[in-house]
Each structure stands twice: as C-alpha cells, then as structure tokens.
Amino acid sequence: MTIKQESQKKLKELGEKLLNEIKSGENPYLDIPIRSLSNVNFNVEKQVLEIGDSSSKRFFFNISHIRKFVQTMEVAALAKELIEVDKHLSLRQVFYALRKTLPGTNIDVVDEQKESNDAIEDLEVIAKLTREQLHVNASKNGAAAGKIIIEDKGDRINWGKLGSGGWAIPSNTENIKFKKIDAKFIIYMEKAAMWERLNEDKVWDKMNCVIIASQGQATRGIRRLLQRLNQEHNLPIYVLTDFDPWGFYIYSVLKFGSISLAHLSDKLAIPEAKFLGLTGEDIKKYKLEKQKIKFKKVDLKRLEQLKKYDWFENKKEWQKQFKLMKEAKGKVELDALVTRGISFVSETYLPEKIKNKDWIE
Amino acid sequence: MAVTSQDIAEEMGKRMKSVSVAEFFKKNKHLLGFDNPLKAMLVVIKEAVDNSLDATEEHAYELKKKKRDFELPEIKVRIKKEEHGLVIIPKDDDIPVADLVKSGDSWYVVLFGEKIRASRVEKNEKFYNVDGKEIKLLFTSAKKPQVYVNGKKADVEERTLKYRITVMDNGPGIVEQNIPNVFGKLLYGSKFHRLRQSRGQQGIGISSTVLYAQQTTGTPAIITSKTQSKEKAVKLSLSIADQNEPIVHSKEYVEDFEYEHGTKIELVIEADYRRSGNKSVYEFIRRTSIVNPHVSFVLKEPKKRKIIFKRTSNKLPEEPKEIKPHPHGLEFGQLKDLLKITNQTTVSQFLVKELTRVSNNMAKDLLRKVNIDSGADPKKLTNNEIEKLLRALHKANLQRPPTNCLSPISEKDLRKSILSDTNAEFVAVSSRRPAVYKGIPFLVEAAIAYGGDIPKDSSQRLRYANKIPLLYDASGCATTKAIKEMNWRQYKVDNVSSSGYPVGPYIVLIHLASVWVPYTSEGKSAIANYPDIIKEMKLSVQDCARKLRMYLRAKMKEKRKQKRINLFETYLPEFAGSLSKLTGKEEEKIKEYLKKTLSEKYNANGDKRDDKEFNENEEEVDENDD
Question: What pLDDT is recorded for position B86?
Fold first, then answer.
C-alpha cells in the first residue's frame, strides 16, 4: 500500500466511524489525543518524547465543541481532495480554503489562521497521519550548504554549488533522495546570520561537512531532513545555539522531540544530536563576560521550566549548565564571538570543539 | 395711669380664644394632602371614592347577612372643566390686571371673584371697564380672544382651572338628617371608635374636601342621596362653618336619580388635571380597581373620555368583623376614653367586655396586682390608676388578637385582576397569614407581574393600604423600604436601579390590610415604618420573587435550549457536506440522520436528553452569551 493509499484509507475509516454513530442516533465524536505536557512522557530507553494515552472527546452536538468539530471535519474533507488530485496547499492557503460563511448567518467556519492550523494538528493525531501525508505544507524556511548531492523531484542538486544562498529547504523533505554524501557531519545553527558567516568562510569545504540553518525553532522539514541524514547515513548532528534557555530548548526539540508534536517523535527526534553551542564554561574561556545581555523575568521563568523537564532532570551536565546560566544572570549570543575575530567561529571555535569532543549530549 | 401686670394679663386673656377644627385645617391644608392643585384633585376624588367603597360594601354585607339580594358596588367619577381661566398681563407691566374666564360659551372678565359685564359689544369685540382701565377682547377664529388693555395688546396666561368633580355610588344612601353632619362636620363618623378594616379611619376625609371646595372656589358642596324606601332623592347644598358646624344653604327633593339608592357628591374645586401618569386620576382609579375586583368603576374625564373598569370578580370579599381593642396596642388616651364611654359598671367587666382576649380570671388577677378593686367604677379611675393598669395590660401574657377583622383580596382574585389589567406574561401572588403589630392585627398581600403589556423600560410599584392605592410620599413608605431591602439580583432580576428597585417589565404590588393602618400623616399617603410590618411585607414579596425566579429560570432555560438547537442547525449542513465528501454517502441522507438525532434529543420529553456530553460546559458558555 502506498503512502497515498494509506492516507486515504485512514481518512475514510474516520468518516465511516462517524457515519455509523450518526446512523444509530448517537452523538458523533472525534477522539483527540491530548497534546500538552500533561500527556507527554519521556521514553528513557529511546531518549525521546512520546504522546500518552489521554485523549478528549469532541462531540458534534455540544455547543462548546461544535465549531472545532466542524473545522476538523472541513480539514479532513479538504485533505482527502488534495490527496486525490495530488496537490499541496500551505497552512495559509488551507485557512483561505476553509474560510467560508455558513449559509444564512454571519458565522465563518474559521476566523483566523490559528483555528485552521489547530484543526490540521488535531486531524494529524486523530487520523494518525502527518501534515505532509495530508498534503499540507508549511512555508519553507532554512538553508543548507555542503558536501552532499541530492535529487528532488527529478532534479539533481549539489549543495556545494549554490553560491551564497544555499539550498532552500522545502517544508516536506520526505521524498528527497541522497545521491552522494562526502560530508562527515552536519552543523545545525539557530540563526541565518551565523549560517551566512560560515558559508562565506566555506567552513563546510574546509571541515568537510554540511551547514544547515533555519530561524529559531527548526521546521518539521529540517528536523526530518536532519533525522534522515543521521539515521540513514550515520552523520553526526551538531547543534549550535546561543547560551540562553531558548537556545537550549532548540537543541532539546531536535534531540528529544517537542511537546506538541510528541506523536511524531519517531519521525523527527534525533537522540544522537550533540550540543555544540555556547556553554557556561565557554564564557570564561572566550572572555565573553562583558557581552552578557541581562535576563528578563520571562527568560528566568523559562529556565526554571527547562530544569524540571523529565529529559533534563537526570542529566548532570545539563543541570550544571542551568546552574551556570542562573549564576550568569544573562545570555550570551553566538554572534558575540565576533569580538574575538571576524572568522573566530570558523577558524577556532568549531574546529577546537569538534577536535576536543567538547560537546554536551 | 400706671399699667399693672394684671391689666396686661387681662388684655392678653381677651385676645386668646379657641381655634376651631375647621379653622385649623383651613390654615393647614397640606396636612390633609392639599399641597398643590394636582394633588388636590386626587385627594378629593380619593376621599369620595373611599367613602363610596366603604358605604357600598357595608351595604352589600348587611343585605347578604339578611340573605337578601344585593348589588355589587358601582362607582362613577366625573371630572368636568368648570371654568377655563386665563390671566391678563399687560405688556409693560408684570402685575395681572384681571382674570379672564369662560363659563359655558360666554367669556367674562373677573376681578376679585366678581364677574364684570361687558360695557359695550361691537361686532367681534367686547369692552370692559376694570379699575379705570379699558379692556378689549377681540374674538378671532382662535380659541382664545386677543386682549388689549388701554389699546395695548396684552398677554394671557393659562391659570389654574376650576373643575367640577362628581362621585356617585349605588350604596345605601344616607338618611336626610345625617347628611349635614357626614359632609359638613370634621371628625364626625362611625369609624373612628371601632376596630375593623375599613378605608376611612378618622372621619376627616370627605368633610375636608367640602372645606377645600369652599375655600378655593367659594362654592358649597351639593349632596344628592336616595335611600331604598324613599321615592325621591334629597339634594342638599351645604358648607362648613368656622365652628365646625354644617350650614345647609338649600334643600330640594329630586326625582331623577340614577340608582335606586346611593349617594352623589359634587364639588367645584381649584385643581389641576392630568390625563395620565403616576399621579393621574386615571392611575388612581386603575390601581383601585386592581385591588377591588368586585367593584365596577366608570371614569368620565374632560374631552369626553370615558373609561370603564369592569369588575373581574362577582364575589363580595369576606366581611371584616369588628373587634375590640387588644390590650397590647392600647395607649393612655385611648384607654381613658374607653373607660369614660363604657356602659360597664365595674372595671373588671370593662376589661372583659370592652377589650379582646381578657378573661374574667385574668382581669381579676391584673387588678389585684395593681391594687384596684375589681368592682370599682370604671369612670372613676384616677390617671395614676389608669397608668398602672395600662402598664399591667401591656405586660400581660395574652393570646394574639383575632384576625377575622381583616379582609384580604385573596390570591385568586388578585391574580385575576392583575392579569386583566396588564395581560402579564407571569403573575405571582402571595397572601400572608395575619400578624400583629402593637396588638393590632394586620395582613400583607403582595404580587409581582412580569411581561405582557407592562412597559419594558420602567417598573411600577403599586402600594396599597386597606385596598386604597397610595400615590404620594413613596420614599417614606414601609412598602418602599421592603422592596428596596430585597436583593433582587438573587431572584434573576438583572436590572436593578441604584435605589434598589427592579427595572424592566415588572409590577411589584404590596397591600397592607389592617384594622388600623399606621399612616405617616393625615394625608394617608404612606405607611409608617414599623419593623413588624416591613418584615411581613418583605416575606410576602420574597415569596412572589421566588416564584418569579423559577419562571425566569425556566424561560431562560427554554431560550438557551432554542439557542443550542439553532447553533446545531447552523453547523449541521456544513458537517453533512464534509462527511459526505469523506465517505461518499449522500449529503441529504446524512442531514436526515442528524436532524432526526437532534429532534429526538431535544423533543423526546420537551427537554434535552440527560447526556453528559450534551451538557458539558453549556452553563458557562451561556452565561457569557447573556
């Protein structure tokens, strides 16, 4: 059974279930696994986040459920059509596709994109299908450069020959074929500016690797791409972030998976990912004390939350970093390394860290 | 010649004289409620209607007791413009020159109450000589004539009008020799010395209106009355002398009287008239008819407006029994008066016969305690002894007074009557059991009406004492206090005014029935704030409010249910459409299934099924919506 057939079958099964309920005069409902911290478990063996068994029922005949119920159904019908005609829509386009007025009223099926986005995520967990399988794309985001040649929809692309922009990573990387891999590892960084710096220095050529960046949290497309490179081709993944709770959490999502997409950890999490970003010790080592930016309340609050997550709780090295961070009372950005020289990151920081295996896991 | 202090004292003594009751009230009109022309109109009609109601009812009770046919009360009130008055004011002077009055079809110029004839009439002009001035009236097509004073055009201003008020009833009539005293003597009456629920209490009401007419327009009252046995009605014209004695000006016997028996009073008074509003005659009659469903009223007003308030009940209310005073409510003066007028020869017999709830043994006991011989002559007790006796009576452990002296409207009649008046969507009524304040029995009835023809933007508070509406002095009234002290929001009344009244299509009615209503003043427009009375009023209104809350809740629930159904129906086609796309099943078929489920869930037993998932969160959501 192809992926397409599997998706169609699952959607049809969902429809049949509801139809049976309606025929027998029951209140039709959708069973939605809860996607919040309370229903997320950390699988110690696999070292990834997994969704738990808790679910909530969403009924049609319930005035506080009906709107979301109908939104979810609209998305399901739309996805079925997209799969049939083999076309894709972006999240924004799905929003417009759902944006119609109920006859005889001034009620719109959706008022804002968040509603259609939520409906898509709900459908993913209800039907156990990914957004990609539902033919819905996020906007593309992120760039790659380095010693890999791929094939995408029949086009052969050499990541080493794409100039200053690199390869724009699509939102769905499921069907990318890796043709030739010379790179020995991947460096993922949270900022496009740093990526451009490293690309200009041709770090990937000098160090024989691939550099990938997005903006902030890695998109699903990038996460899947990184996971495949790691799992299918045994390439180590190094994550380069700032010294602050948000940077640490970007690493956490890549490695263990995220809370809201815990049901997709199998396809997104990279338990072998290594942290190569700034550590508490680096601040002293690279004399960055003066580059600290004072934490705000919200930063400290986030730090406290991170400390208590199951997947960090028993990790000595991480708890040490949290402690140092609390003592530092401020964050230090990777960009601050420029104070040590324009190409300090490419010529000193990265080679030294990798050579000394100076990473955290 | 030296002036001694003895001379001065004698001189002062000569100037002192007693002031008659009539004279006193002449100078203190406001005490009887004649504060302003508008109120005067109401007070006159109220007093006459009170009298008619008491008379007609008592008549019916007597006939009923004798097992004879009786007519239910009918009362007719007529208000007629007697004089159209204008004041002539010259252009260069603020001081009015004279009054201009239309009497019938003719116009007169009036100075100091004297009508002046025109000295000359030319075509459409009339000339008068008044106080050395020549006044010309020019009649054009306009209703009012144009006025010239010494050739200069003058302004005319409307002035207080005179009205002829007629109130007529089908009561027993009054025997000829009693008429002068009933209408021409203050504080004369049968009601002051007895304890029974009646409208009039002191016997000042009707004679004070005669006095008011006399003072404001100089006209005597005209009383026509016919008793069953006489062939003709007697018609008297009378007024009240300063010494509080009636003066009969004329007497004749007339054949045309509308009823077989009854009484009619006609008064010409200075007053103001309003067609509608809280303090209009219309409102007074309307409110009176609400609590007197067995009475039929006819109101004839200026401009040929005739309103008939039909009776909604053909049953005469229970007759209130007369009771003797209860010792706990006695006051010194009252006890002294009773001792003086009693026919009993011993104090102990006086206590047993003239008061209620005192037994022979108890009387002897009491008298022994205060050292008064039980065989003593009641007329010969000293003030000191009366004082001691009163204190002992107040402390005595006695049964509460009997309550058959009260005549409530009854819940059934009150409801019917309010429904007929307002066409209300919902009416709650409550009739409390009798209670006692200061030894005086009383009973409270209340009603709350909601919706129907009741205006949405205001709430009406109908206050009554002994079946008579109270229109003035609301702020000082016990009923107002009772309503204000309620927590209306607790009863699902959302909109409450800052002073604590419910706002919206509500009528709140409170009726106090008592053998002695404690009014705050002689004007009888507000009930004094006795805690015992306020407490009963609150309990009664709360009783109604609880029923109202139940009704409003049910109504809200129904509204919510409808809202839910509407919401389901709105989303239903959309769901059917998407499910049809998913499964390939026809959209119409899915709609049919869903509609069937919906109607089964909501209409099986008039309410939705007791499904947990159905009810989830709905309270919360609905509260927000409202």
Answer: 72
A14 touches chain B (CB under 8 A): yes
- Residues B519-551 have pLDDT tens digits of 887 777 899 999 999 999 999 999 999 999 999
Q: Do B585 and A74 touch (CB under 8 A)?
A: no
- CB within 8 Å: B601 and A61: yes
B597–A64 CB contact, under 8 Å = no
Active-site residue A251, yes or no? no
Question: Residue A12 and residue B594: Cβ atoms within 8 Å?
Answer: no
Residue B22 has pLDDT above 70, yes or no: no
How near does any CA of chain A get to the CA of B528, in Å? 53
pLDDT at B206: 85
Give Cβ neighbours of residue B223 (< 8 Å, ≥ 6 apart).
B174, B179, B183, B235, B236, B238, B263, B264, B265, B266
Could you give the ipTM of this predicted complex? Answer: 0.79
Chain A neighbors of B616, CB-CB under 8 A: 59, 62, 64-65
Q: Any idea which fold B327-395 has?
A: Helicase, Ruva Protein; domain 3 (1.10.8)
Whose CA is closest to A188, among A334, A302, A33, A8? A334
CATH architecture of A3-137: Orthogonal Bundle (1.10)
Q: CATH topology of A3-137 equal to that of A143-355?
A: no
Domain A143-355 fold? Dna Topoisomerase Vi A Subunit; Chain: A, domain 2 (3.40.1360)
Cβ contact B162:B83 at 8 Å: yes
**Count of alpha carbons within 13 angstroms of residue A223, beta-carbon side:** 24
Chain A residue with minimum CA distance to B564: A63
Q: Topology of B39-73+170-273 in CATH?
A: Heat Shock Protein 90 (3.30.565)
Contact A105 B618 (CB under 8 A): no
* Cα–Cα dist B137/B117, whole Å: 12
CB contact under 8 A, A11 and B582: yes
For residue B459, the model assigns a pLDDT of: 78
The mean of the pLDDT values for chain B is 84
> Is pLDDT at B16 greater than 70 in this prediction?
no
> For residue B8, how many other CB atoms are within 10 A of its CB?
10
- Which residue of B568, B574, B609, B610 to mutate against A (max A Cβ within 10 Å)? B574
Q: What residue spans define the domains of chain A?
A: 3-137, 143-355
pLDDT of residue B477: 93
For A:227-286, CB contacts with B below 8 A are none
- For residue A192 the two structure tokens come to 């496009």
CA A208 to CA A160: how far, in whole Å?
11
Looking at chain B, the whole-number percentage of residues with pLDDT higher than 70 is 87
Question: B595-626 as b/e, with b when 16 or more CB fall inside 10 Å?
Answer: eebbeebbeeeeebeeeeebebebeebbeeee
pTM exceeds 0.95 for this model:
no
Q: What residue of A is the nearest CA neighbor of B597?
A: A25
Using 70 as the pLDDT threshold, list the residues of chain A that sit under it.
none
pLDDT reading at B247 higher than 80? yes
Return the domain boundaries, chain B.
Answer: 39-73+170-273, 81-161, 327-395, 411-551, 560-625
Q: Measure in Å the smallest separation between the Cα of B493 and chain A Cα atoms.
A: 26
CA dist A347 → A193, A243, B514 (Å): 17, 20, 106
Arch. (CATH architecture) of B81-161: Beta Barrel (2.40)
Residue B158: the pLDDT is 67
CATH 3.30.230.10 fits B411-551, yes or no: yes
| B181 pLDDT more than 90 | no
Burial class from Cβ neighbours inside 10 Å (0-12, 13-18, 19+) for residue B437 reads buried
Q: Is A164's Cβ below 8 Å from some Cβ in B?
A: no
Q: What is the pLDDT of residue B189?
A: 56
Cα separation, B491 vs B538, in Å, equals 13
Q: Which residue of B has its CA nearest to A74?
A: B578
Predicted pLDDT at B610: 43
